Amino acid sequence: MDIAQTQTPTDAATWMREAGTRARVASRAIAVAGAEARTAGLLAAAKLLRDRTDTIVAANAQDIAAYDATGGTTAFRDRLLLTPARVATMADGVETVANLPDPLDRTLAEWTRPNGLRIARVAQALGVIGMIYESRPNVGADAAAICIKAGNAVILRGGSDSRHSAAAIHAAFTEGLASAGLPADAVQIAPSTDRAYVGAMLAVSGALDLIIPRGGKGLVTRVQAEARVPVLAHAEGICHTFVHAAADLAMARVIVANAKMRRPGICGATETLLVDRAAAARLLPPIVSDLAALNCRFRADADARAICPDLDPAQPGDFDTEWLDAVLNIAIVDGVAGALAHIVAHGSSHTEAIVTQDADAAHAFLDGLDSAVGLWNASTQFCDGAEFGFGAEIGIATGRIHARGPVGPEQLTTFRYVVTGTGQVRP
């Protein structure tokens, strides 16, 4: 699985074509296997993930050691780290996905035409998914579980930072599927983290039905520019929390601290705090004090610094930056309209929250957003497939076509029409 990083572009292209052919065959088998078989395969995979916790954690230790040698950030290291508890959570997520209702057993709509034809729109698997992800090794298990539940095959290309972890997770997953009589080719992983495999996935024609990139802006931009199949983009998480003048201060302090500092390296972490000018002098100082005690650093506009002079000044581009670290932008805005204007100018259509006791203000804020997820009086870190009841997620879709927000099994289906007649012919 973890071969030397010496593959040539030709090797990568050949492997991807052959993997795509095998995945196409496997996707058909998975789609028709039935809900019980898919569920059994996922439950078996979850059990093997638990049984091999020590092996997976040991593989992850190799990745962590290599990362520590680079002197990288604490937040990124946290994204990469697997502990026994996190492996258990990963397995729990696979089990939750396994036990969700079958996303293929759905009639989305049905009607009868005047000529007696009965038409039904029914759910159908997409086919073969290409998944490119970076750093977080659990993404491989999440993606595999969601794809299999929805009757799809998936080809994974993980990042170099998590290559040992990804290989150990993949081995457990495919053996679990095989034990339930499902084809191991339904979940394949590139045998190297050489970047040639990214290019090969983007260039392959006819083998993939959808590509999902989950990583930094550079990766997503490249995939969108070069892919020859549709892309379901997981873009930057430049998320905002707006503390309105009618916010309960105690609630605001708890929410903002959680939204920024619970896990600052995830895409649902708040990157910018917006504070209503009408109550900024009351609201901002205690919130800043709480965050500073948690070792958060700040980038603030002039109005915020007039209230809290010790804040570092924001530099050009800071409000357009996904820090993925213990760094928070702060801006003072004029009410809901000002908050929405700031989000339009600097946001990434991911997740935004308002903290307020004023229902009218909350609805005006939520109705004015075009982001994938809006929250009222809750942390932005709830933008997560598991928290939405999906068990896991394959990413957070921020585009406007097909799916938005956390992508679970239902979002990885399409539909077809089934028409039943009684001998009708068209005049």
CATH topology term of the largest domain: Aldehyde Dehydrogenase, Chain A, domain 1
CATH fourth-tier homologous superfamily of the largest domain: Aldehyde Dehydrogenase, Chain A, domain 1
Low-confidence segments, given as residue ranges, are 1-7
- The end-to-end span amounts to 60 Å
Number of domains: 2
Number of helices in the DSSP assignment: 14
Main beta sheet, described?
A: 6 strands, parallel
Order of helices and strands: HHHHHEEEHEHEHEHEHEHEHEHEHEEEE
Strand order of the largest sheet: 9-10-8-7-11-12
Q: What is the CATH first-level class name of the largest domain?
A: Alpha Beta
DSSP E strands, number: 15
Radius of gyration: 23 Å
CATH architecture of the largest domain: 3-Layer(aba) Sandwich
What does this structure look like?
The chain contains 14 helices and 15 strands. The protein has 427 residues and is an alpha/beta fold. The protein folds into two domains: 9-232 and 407-419, 3-Layer(aba) Sandwich (Aldehyde Dehydrogenase, Chain A, domain 1), CATH 3.40.605.10; 239-382, 3-Layer(aba) Sandwich (Aldehyde Dehydrogenase, Chain A, domain 2), CATH 3.40.309.10. The strands form four sheets. The protein has a six-stranded parallel β-sheet, with helices on both faces. Helix 2 (35-51) runs antiparallel to helix 5, helix 3 packs antiparallel against helix 7 (163-179) and helix 10 (249-261) packs across helix 11 (280-293). The chain starts with 8 loop residues before the first helix and ends in a 7-residue tail after the last strand. The relative contact order is 0.15.
